[in-house]
Amino acid sequence: MALFPLLASCTARPGFARTDIRKDYYIIGDQKQQEGFRDLFALLEEGTGNAEERFAILNEIAGEYARLKEYSRLVNFLGVCMSKYPDDPYSAYYLLMIAYAYTQQEADEVAVLYYNLIVNNCPDLTVRGESIHFIALNRLIALTGNQEQLIRYYGELLSRFSDKTDPGAAYFQLGQAYEKTGEWNLAIQAYTRFLPYYGTVIPGFPDAYAYAKRLVDFNNSPKDWTFESLPAMVDTIESALNTGNSRRLWSYRAKVNFFTRSWGQEDEDSAEVAEFTLVDFMRGNQIRYAAELDESSNANEAYLRTWGWYQYISTWYFYFRKIYFPLDPDIHGRWEWAGIYYGEKW
Description:
By secondary structure, the protein is an alpha+beta fold. Helices cover about 45% and strands about 10% of the residues. The strands form two sheets. The protein has a five-stranded mixed beta sheet, with helices on one face.
């Protein structure tokens, strides 16, 4: 695999010792292909000063190397040409082709250097109706695992190419990147801007909308229903069950993101609880509960089996959840009664 020295700027010479083209190295393929290369190199040697004509020739030669999967020759050829024509206005496109060649050689780390060079050092260029910066940014997003860099790439897409970018997907991924770097305020802002794009499909994240909405709604809530610890919450809820006071019991639930559903239901199928009350389900009955939390409980989630509810499904499991919300250290790590599962556990 050939390594073309990385340019310090879009127009700087790459440091080749010579700028002539060794045709014996570049004329390859079968007889017809060799004849085609000779014709193209003959046109190139005529030394046309027209950048558009030169671009057409260079692009044809480089494209033929790509079709033949001769990526090392493609990189070397474009490197020599850029050294020979340092002020060529199509330099960003040639760098894009070099980056593509490195990707095809499974040298993604080198390709990322070139894509960054295009975005950071080269004026944008439109070829066949496509922005070179737009292409480079999308390829950087696909190849980069660095969250700080992703924040910059998504930010540029949204600010510069909003007409070509899926804003819903970009805002959600921006929120993810901010979250992973600990920038929670900025993450909430990004998720808030994502929410109007309901229905946006995020590859690998089928519940993206529900995830973002839970965070945004929780952030905007008073959070005054939380408990310092799981034992404190369970004791309080059991005390309310013992008294049979449905109003008191219901006041301990989470005021946002609370769900009621059967086992196996998806989040989006959860019942609405805005008008939900416990009065009609207790009807003076003494609701009983297990002496211990369910064995499936862990450090972050817990289940309390209860029974005696006045409906066709008499067994309910109260679901308790440890709060993950680093944005507010006073709330992060506390507990909330987050939902109800109907029926016996599977």
